[in-house]
Amino acid sequence: MQLDERKMKILQAIIRTYMETGEPVGSRTISKYSDLNLSSATIRNEMSDLEEMGYIIQPHTSAGRIPSDKGYRLYVDTMMLEKDREVAEMKELMLEKTEKMEKILMQVAKLLANNTNYAAMISSPQIRKNRLKFIQLSQVDTLHILAVIVCEGNIVKNKVIETEDELDNEDILKLNILLNTNLNGLAMEEINLATIARLKEQAGIHSQLLNDVMDAVAEAIVGDEDLEIYTSGATNIFKYPELSDSSKAKEILATFEEKQQLVELVNSTMEQNSETGIQVYIGEETPIQTMKDCSVVTATYELEEGVQGTIGIIGPKRMDYEKVVANLKTLMNKLDDVFKKK
Amino acid sequence: MQLDERKMKILQAIIRTYMETGEPVGSRTISKYSDLNLSSATIRNEMSDLEEMGYIIQPHTSAGRIPSDKGYRLYVDTMMLEKDREVAEMKELMLEKTEKMEKILMQVAKLLANNTNYAAMISSPQIRKNRLKFIQLSQVDTLHILAVIVCEGNIVKNKVIETEDELDNEDILKLNILLNTNLNGLAMEEINLATIARLKEQAGIHSQLLNDVMDAVAEAIVGDEDLEIYTSGATNIFKYPELSDSSKAKEILATFEEKQQLVELVNSTMEQNSETGIQVYIGEETPIQTMKDCSVVTATYELEEGVQGTIGIIGPKRMDYEKVVANLKTLMNKLDDVFKKK
DNA sequence: ATTAGCACTCAACCTATCAGAGTGCTAATA
DNA sequence: TATTAGCACTCTGATAGGTTGAGTGCTAAT
Fold first, then answer.
1. Closest Cα of chain B to A97: distance in Å?
2. CB count, 10 Å around CB of A133?
3. Is the Cβ pair A249, B257 closer than 8 Å?
4. C-beta of residue B11 within 8 angstroms of C-beta of residue B55
């Protein structure tokens, strides 16, 4: 069977109506409130076809139809792409001051949740291919050394290291010079065993300390650990009856609380970089199993080359995809402004 | 009217039973399942008295009784205190490595939530009366200075400062010495205008930079900003029908998501330091308005003199108070072990 | 002071009924 | 041949009535 223009229009009308109401939509509704000028009987025939083709589903005999995952998918793929070719002129931002950053990210999540009435999440930007800018060791007291590591993009990490043998200022100065001359500008994959061995040799007796420092450096550069995720509006799911029965709601909210699973969402989003940066997962397509009754829209934002994070919207399958995508786009621009202003 | 021994026992039985079942409890139940050997009629008379005195409530005629806030309060005050005099031998812990810290705190929250089946929260330790240990400025690039501030207890903060005029290494060295000789060992309240004025004078042209640094220092010492709160098991509230109707659940969960209100809970807990460190808020007593249908049990933990945080359990009013308090106590000991081991 | 007994109340549950929305099918129509 | 009108049928959801069981308050007997 062919999915001709008319069927397409009817499908579209069904999805639109269903989004508004959340109720199964019947033939008569479409017949009356669309500009197709067809009788409900005709619509019924077409709907019957659409159902056979798998685009819509009847929850039970004598109920209206609701879109299937396949139907939503079609909707998103086609209806969306029309609007979408107005490409992305993207950001070029500064990031420093992680504390402020946190606040902005939380603000963004909140704003998004309020605007869309869905649940929102945003991940802190991740640095890919990060390079070391400089290292600074300083003595805190006789037994503790503070290592401050600054990477490209002014990402700062610190680590307090407990030392076994006491060090004097001179030792530390030497180590500082040693580390900086040997490691500056290197990315993680370039710091290999040979480099480290050479360092150790030159460091002499302080090789234990050096080990700890290297650990800290590795962590700072790879930096997978401190992927922070901020969420907002998780309770918005109560606005959608199809999600708010207690067991479903519980699962979804627990996922939001246990941010671990959201991290996976972020990772899977990062891997597939689509052209527009926006991805839509419908129902079972989602990488998070517990969200199989929802749809998830994610976008990747980029502050500067190689520094990027993920924004996501989680809502019911009858989510207003156009609105969400529009929101995500304008939001990215706003984000841009905020960072540029500083 | 007097609250004699027997009334007390009946009240206790009512509360215990209500905790288990969550249903209003009737006279017959008490008559059968308590060791009082009284007929239901007698119980009914006593219950009538108890209701008049305000310890129990009848949701509607011909339903059983449930404990009122006042009843719970009595229960907690008396029943609890018996068990409670086995004081608190407390902690003496190290803290460094805030990242590890985070993980431990999250773990604790999780454990507590799992153990009790209520919602749990824990705040990161706050430092009261903090003193500056040392400051280190270093040049990141021509326009950025990194200020690293270490406080007593090895709390590290850093701030990247944008400079207007270019600085050379010598300038920075001077500033470093200046700051350290003048500020070391001082607490916030000791850094007054006079000190700052003197510093500015000596800093000469770099007074703008000095301003920024002082801001950073102030923030590091006061450090009210980075009160982190970790939660777990928020969705446990669905286990209690009296809380899980959608509007109430929504409110409570939103409070958990918006950690702001929990901060207030932490603050109010910190202010009133009871002897045992454990406080119980029942119903309307709670500092968080949205939790008026719940009970909140908070405890203050202390890592070392002046470094303390808050743990809290949020559950239904029919929470098993004894269990919760016991849990909090053993948990504190566990926390102790964890930190001591390191 | 305690208890047994009785009448009464109320929420919860079950059942039946009914209206409304929706469908599928068939026959009439353009 | 495509569309439409009409009709019988199905299913959900709301409403109303009836029943049950748990619980109470009161009174009279112990």
1. 6
2. 21
3. no
4. yes
Put simply, the answer to whether A226 touches B254 (Cβ < 8 Å) is no
Q: Is B235 on the interface with A (CB under 8 A)?
A: yes
List where CATH 3.30.390.60 sits in chain A: 132-222
Neighbours of A196 (CB within 10 A): 16
Among A160, A225, A244, the residue with its CB nearest the CB of B246 is A244
Distance A62 CA to C19 C1' (A): 15
Asked whether residue A37's C-beta has any atom of DNA/RNA strand D within 7 A, the reply is yes
Please answer whether residues B296 and B281 qualify as being in contact, where contact means their C-beta atoms are separated by less than 8 angstroms: yes
Contact check, Cβ <8 Å, A150/B154: no
Alpha carbons B204 and B197: distance in angstroms, whole number = 11
* Amino acid at site A260: Q
| Mutation to test the B interface, candidates A156, A222, A251, most B Cβ within 10 Å | A156
Average pLDDT, chain A: 79
Chain segment B167-200, per-residue pLDDT in tens: 777 888 888 888 888 877 777 667 777 777 777 7
Contact by Cβ (8 Å): B293, B243: yes
Strand D and B268 CB separated by under 7 Å: no
A140 → closest Cβ in B97, B150, B256: B150
B8 touches chain A (CB under 8 A): no
Can you read off the two tokens belonging to residue B177? 């010495």
B98-124+227-341: which CATH number, 3.30.450.40, 3.40.50.410, 3.90.1150.10, 3.30.1330.30? 3.30.450.40
Q: Which residue is nearest to nucleotide D5 (CA to C1')?
A: A41
Token representation of residue A134:
């400089």
Distance in Å, alpha carbon of B95 to nearest chain A alpha carbon: 10
Any atom of strand C under 7 A from CB of B241? no
More confident residue, B199 or A313: A313
Query: Is the pLDDT score of B157 beyond 90?
Result: no
DSSP collapsed to 3 states, chain A:
CCCCHHHHHHHHHHHHHHHHHCCCECHHHHHHHCCCCCCHHHHHHHHHHHHHHCCEECCCCCCCEEECHHHHHHHHHHHHHHHHCCCCCCCCCCCCCHHHHHHHHHHHHHHHHHHHCCEEEEECCEECCCEEEEEEEEEEECCEEEEEEEECCCEEEEEEEECCCCCCHHHHHHHHHHHHHHHCCCEHHHCCHHHHHHHHHHHHHHHHHHHHHHHHHHHHHHCCCCCCEEEECHHHHHHCCCCCCHHHHHHHHHHHHCHHHHHHHHHHHHHCCCCCCEEEEEHHHCCCHHHCCEEEEEEEEEEECCEEEEEEEEEECCCCHHHHHHHHHHHHHHHHHHHHHC
Given the candidates 3.40.50.1000, 3.90.1150.200, 1.10.10.10, 1.10.530.10, the CATH classification of the domain at A5-67 is 1.10.10.10
What pLDDT is attached to residue B342? 42
Max mean pLDDT among A324-333, B62-71, B109-118, B123-132 falls in B62-71
B228-247: average pLDDT: 86
Locate CATH 1.10.10.10 in chain B.
5-67
Domain A132-222 falls under CATH 3.30.390.60: yes
Among candidate residues A285, A341, A259, A327, the one with its CA nearest the CA of residue A108: A327
Residues of chain B with CATH 3.30.450.40: 98-124+227-341
Predicted confidence band of residue B55 (pLDDT cuts 50, 70, 90) = very high
